[in-house]
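Have a close read of this protein, sequence plus structure tokens, and explain what the tokens say about the fold. Thanks in advance:
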Amino acid sequence: MKSITIKGSQRESVGKASTKALRNAEKVPCVLYGGDKPLHFSADDLAFSKLVYTPDVHTVVIDLDNGQKFNAILQDIQFHPVTDKILHIDFYQMYDDREVTLEIPVKIEGNAPGVMKGGVLRLTKRKLKVKALPKHLPDYIPANISEMEIGNKLYVTSLTNDDYKILNPDNTVVCQVRISRAAMKAAQEAAKAEKAGK
């Protein structure tokens, strides 16, 4: 999985006034959990654009100006309800020998025969919850649709992998090929015409 480096500065004071001052200076207050104690730091607003405003998922290297570096994943993010500015981010520290849980995007692969015959592919789960060691975290979960006919559904059970565990329930539908409205209408009209002709 690709990693993004966020350069930040450790925060000494974490009160409301210092948080407000940070935001006014175009910086985002952050907390890193998972270590001995929570670590408060801040980073430039712009540093998060490649991490937040993308469908891709990345791990993060938090590079503090005091020389400390931490591997982490984004755990929670708060946006301003009106301006959509990032107000606060929580990170969780990763360790090579500890599994982490992360939502990973689903990537469709192949062409469904059902779509070629007039069906419509509906992706019902764009991301799946995955648990794995950091080195086994995938960039995406491939979903092969090359066997799917109209009416077929692809369940998470078809996407299992030895490197990671999908935590969604087994009956979760990832995508399905449904009959298109136009095809359904044409079929109904053909049935009507057949009835009328009898």
